[in-house]
Structure to design on (306 residues):
């Protein structure tokens, strides 16, 4: 990232952290080159099936590693903003130097936020695009379903949302803790906890689709691309029974279900069409949380340093 056209605290911030900022486009370029090479290798006609399977296996292995790495990207972004960008300057007192250069505390903090948020937003969006390019070669297979952990976060705007939340938490925690390592740890923990909580509630953001079929019919209810949430049986009175209701019965499964007056099967699931609405809803929640954290951070810097 060039600092030539920047002025004041923005120029200082870019100069201070130029190595870390240049790391972002370097990762994008390296990831893009690796994905393109692996896709070309896996898609090229091969003389032997063993060679072709090996190429596909390497692509899968790389995409698994990439997906897990991108899940940790918001934690790293937040930890860096909390530690080296914010808490370290407060801990060492070098932030006071910025105030002697006709800069206000709000301008000092605003430079940190703008530079970090811009780099993180552009970088995470580019990395998500690179990952999605490789993911299309393995999508729908084991561990690469659109709703799988890792693949879901790395293929859509939620990755940008989590990274921006990490930045916002970083500038807030960095001011509160004012110790570099402690601020990094706390920010990483808070960002990780947010990701875990959102992972638990994510599939409650949209209503599921319910399909039924008469019992003892064997019709397929959910498409292969769907995300199954619940399945079981319906009784004549409208009650629901879990899928394993008759597993411990001495009777045959069908006889047991008949005795329980079962009349239909049901499945509740999310179709693949719920991917983008869920992504957008979750991203909106993350951006609201980030805005709240930034508001608190700027109120704090104003209250403490004028």
């Amino acid at each position: 990232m060039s600092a030539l056209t920047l002025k004041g605290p923005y120029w200082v911030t870019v100069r201070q952290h130029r190595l870390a900022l240049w790391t972002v486009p370097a990762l994008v370029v390296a990831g893009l080159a690796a994905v393109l090479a692996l896709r070309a290798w896996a898609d090229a006609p091969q003389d032997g099936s063993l060679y072709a399977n090996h190429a596909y296996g390497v692509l899968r292995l790389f995409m698994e590693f990439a997906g897990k790495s991108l899940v940790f990207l918001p934690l790293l972004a937040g930890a860096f903003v909390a530690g080296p960008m914010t808490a370290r300057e407060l801990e060492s007192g070098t932030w006071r130097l910025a105030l002697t250069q006709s800069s206000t505390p709000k301008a000092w903090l605003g430079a940190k936020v703008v530079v970090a948020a811009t780099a993180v937003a552009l970088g995470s969006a580019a990395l998500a695009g690179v990952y999605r390019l490789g993911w299309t070669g393995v999508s729908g297979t084991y561990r690469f379903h659109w709703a799988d952990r890792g693949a879901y976060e790395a293929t859509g705007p939620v990755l940008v949302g989590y990274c921006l939340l990490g930045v916002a938490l970083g500038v807030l925690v960095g001011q509160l803790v004012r110790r570099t390592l402690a601020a990094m740890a706390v920010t990483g923990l808070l960002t990780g906890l947010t990701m875990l909580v959102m992972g638990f509630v994510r599939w409650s953001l949209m209503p599921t689709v319910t399909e039924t079929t008469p019992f003892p019919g064997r019709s397929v209810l959910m498409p292969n691309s769907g995300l199954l949430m619940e399945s079981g049986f319906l009784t004549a009175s409208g009650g629901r029974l879990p899928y394993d209701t008759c597993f411990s019965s001495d009777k045959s499964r069908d006889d047991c279900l008949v005795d329980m007056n079962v009349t239909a099967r049901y499945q509740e699931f999310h179709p693949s069409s719920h991917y983008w609405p869920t992504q957008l809803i979750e991203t909106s929640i993350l951006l609201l949380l980030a805005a709240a954290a930034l508001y608190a951070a700027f109120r704090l810097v104003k209250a403490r340093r004028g």
